[in-house]
Structure formats: C-alpha cells, structure tokens
Amino acid sequence: MKAFVVLSLIGYLVVPSGADVLGRCVVAKRLDEGGLSNFEGYSLENWVCLAYFESKFNPEAVYENVRGSYMGYGLFQIRDTDWCDNGKNRCHMSCSALLNQDLNKTIECAKIIVQGKKGMGSWPSWSLNCQNSDTLERWLDGCKL
Question: How far is Cα 82 from Cα 145, in angstroms, rounded to an integer?
Fold first, then answer.
C-alpha cells in the first residue's frame, strides 16, 4: 500500500529524463525576446513569476492533475484540455511542442491564453502568487536583458 501511495505521488509530476531547468534570467531573456514584456499590459516580471510557480523554470515539465482530469505542459503548465491537441486545441499545436527549451511555441500559446477574458488569471498560481505582489521586481534582479 505504501509503495502505491509513493508511486502515485511521484506520478503527479513527470519530468523527462535529461530535462534542464532554465535559470531565472535565461527565462526572463527568452520571454522578453518572445515579446511577452508588457504583452496585454502584463510586465515581464509577472511572466517570470508565473513560470516559477508553474514549473520552477522547467520548460519540459509535465504535470498530471488526476482530480481535474488534465495534463499541464511546459514552462507555464498549459492545460491540454483547452489549449493543445489533446483537447480543444485553441493554440493549434501539439502538447509536445510546449516541451521545448527555446520556448517559442510556449510563448505563442501563452499569448493566445492571456488575450482571453481572464488574462493571466487563467493561471490560478499567478492569481495566488504574482497578482498584486509588491515584490515582483525581484524576478528580474541582476538580469541583463
């Protein structure tokens, strides 16, 4: 029974072998280069904060939410049920395309998501950890963009 519980917990966060977690400033630079700085009025700090709380800067993270019956993919843990080819595919891409270190597809899909009526509120972790934070500027401390 204990083994089953441990294996179940491990199954919640599946990270491909050899996955490289990106540094905070690398993430900031790639998101900035991808045009997310002030996209739809959200600062780059908000995007970096979101990336941290969704994947701990791991662009290859895959999370299975058994209760919610969805999988989250990549840096922003984009849900398959709405945004990639396992569901409604509103971003018009495969879920595996979101598991890429260059972040191009992730940024493309995030732009589509944030243009919706909830904005960055589409990510509950942003609402809980980043929205209205008075320490957002720390996410870019020391980064040369």
Answer: 32
54 as an active site residue: the answer is: yes
pLDDT at 137 over 80: yes
Q: For the CA atoms of the chain, what is the radius of gyration? A: 15
The string of pLDDT tens digits covering residues 38-73 is 999 999 999 999 999 999 999 999 999 888 789 999
Place of tokens 């018009």: 92
CA distance 30 to 32: 5
- In tens, the pLDDT along 11-24 reads 434 444 445 899 99
Q: In what order do the strands lie in the sheet with 13-14?
A: 13-14, 62-65, 70-73, 78-79
Backbone CA torsion sign across 18, 23, 26, 32: positive
Q: Bigger pLDDT: 5 or 26?
A: 26
> Which position among 33, 40, 45, 54 bears the catalytic label?
54
